[in-house]
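Changelog-linked ticket: protoporphyrin IX containing FE example.
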Amino acid sequence: GAPATGTATGAPTGAPPTARAQQSAYLTNATGTRLRDTDHSLKAGSRGPTLLQDHHLREKITHFDHERIPERVVHARGAGAHGVFEGYGTATSVSMAGVFAKGKETPVFVRFSTVLGSRGSADTVRDTRGFATKFYTDEGNWDLVANNIPVFFIQDGIKFPDVIHAGKPHPDREIPQAQSAHDTFWDFVSLHTEAQHHTMWNMSDRGIPRSYRMMEGFGVHTFRCMNAEGGTSLVKFHWKPKLGVHSLTWEEAQMIGGIDPDFHRRDLYDAIEAGAYPEWELGVQVFPDEPDQMFAGIDLLDPTKIVPEEIAPVQPIGKLTLNANPTNFFAEVEQIAFHVGHLVPGIDVTDDPLLQTRLFSYVDTQLSRLGGPNYNQIPVNRPHVPTNDMFRDGFHQHAVHSGVAPYKPNSMDGGCPFAAGTDLSEEQTRAFVEAAVTVAEATKVRENPASYDDHYSQVRQFWLSMTPVEKEHIIRAYTFELGKCYEQAVKERQLQSLANIDPVLCQEVATGLGLPAPEPTIPLQDLEPSPALSQIKGPFPPD
Ligand code: HEM
């Protein structure tokens, strides 16, 4: 686990550690009194009624009754591991973040997950996978909360509850447990056609990975990075697995789901246990930070779009190695709390409206999931640097703060380092400063820009890039999943979207469903990169 060093937490001087000494020679109750017997309740005679005065019985049962915490509202099912990230030094012209410095080693914890299933659901279902990394950097924690699919279902975070309500089991029957084969999912994605791109990735072999070790990861959003000179670039983050990208076949996924529902969790644990440490390279696509935040006609703030790697190559900037399994699943995998707002100097957010909502949502959900505002004191969440946040008290407060003046500037706690005129140069040079971006003067509206309107051409591009066998898998996936729907109107509406993506795909799925194939309602666009586009390179200097 993460060391306790450097945090404001700790017991009063001289007090023993709070860790429970489970290996000690004797048993105690929660307050340290030794016990002779924890196997028999206190009774009036050996057959008599149990006595209310048995505090140990009540304490033991009460604690047990409160062992469960709520599972994550999404991404409830997961597995994780500790590791190290080593910077290559190739990103310094783009970001001043110390984590990218050449040879710099930073401890990390990674949690992989499925999205829709509950905590006990099977690993091999067709779903998006989470790939969340917490970097315990010298400048504070940086969380890269990524998925294995480079686009998202929606363009605006206000629709997140809607897409999750549609994807989770039906409220009446509470089925299906963890997959997209049901009416509300297809109802949503056929009514919200911006979801068609993510959905096609789900229906492809990417939706059923062979192993967490063989998945890519994508930050999805465009971030804004800053170098030491204050220059900014727009950046998309990519994880590339050293073992390559591999998938199960649908038949394998189905069988393994029955035989070993913990398949991915077991695979990750066993590989690390055997010393076959999984590795990924972190890479970036870098774009000039132009006022319109577009690149090659693609809106960089639209999370349903990729930028093809052919026109913006992914540049490697560091290597991740997972080399240690958790020793306590609850303390590490369950209690870890990621947040896209956990940023370090040199990495900032953009105005992507999905990212903006995420900045609010993660803290909010963790307040209830982890029981109050002090969850960053939980060992796995603690930064590996000293904290001085002036946050006080609250549920599950473990720190015993010294000092009397939790505000700045103050003149009572050993001087006044933040007073006006104080020389901050030494202490503050590594402080996080938001990029000084101009916010356009604009009218308040509830609408998307026109650049978000094209919901189909990148889906078609994805389809056309597939090999024949991959196309066959996609056709069979759509046919199987839609075949589970009860509502004919939902199937017909989704077929209309498929007609707008590709006539062959639509015809094949329609035949499988025993329905007529509709005509497209928009002209098909192939989005061939023009020769001019393929000349464009990011400002990233080659190593
Ligand atoms: C988990 C909200 C979009 C990746 C979560 C959680 C919430 C949430 C509430 C549970 C967190 C917890 O209990 O600790 C949202 C909202 C989104 C959004 C409101 C859109 C507005 C995304 C996107 C990605 C993503 C685009 C990928 C790029 C993840 C991952 C986790 C997660 C990987 C699991 C983290 C873990 O392993 O603990 N999300 N999410 N989410 N989300 Fe999102």
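Closing comment: Example verified and attached. The longest strand covers residues 78-87. The chain has 14 helices and 14 strands.
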